[in-house]
Description:
Layout: H1 9-34, H2 48-52, H3 57-100
Amino acid sequence: MMRVLICGPKLAACGIVLSTWGVIMLAMLGIFFTTHSAVLIEDVPVTDEDIHEDKNPPQRIYELYNKVGYNCFIAAGIYVLFAAFSCCQMRLNKQREYLVH
């Protein structure tokens, strides 16, 4: 396996912090969207057709809530990957410091 050092220790630490915050925030948003929180209705892409032309309006809006919630969970998963990448970079930086000294 080829190990490539792409970023320094400070950037890797920053990536870990930001990724951790992104995972927490997006996971919480995903939970709130999938539980159909009324506070987040402005962030659901509802059109007039979804409200007026649908025979079962709440069901269509709940589907949109779930769709946005799943997108939040996918984004949180991507942040997990970035956190893992940042952790690998931190480890490589520590190994490099150990070898240099």
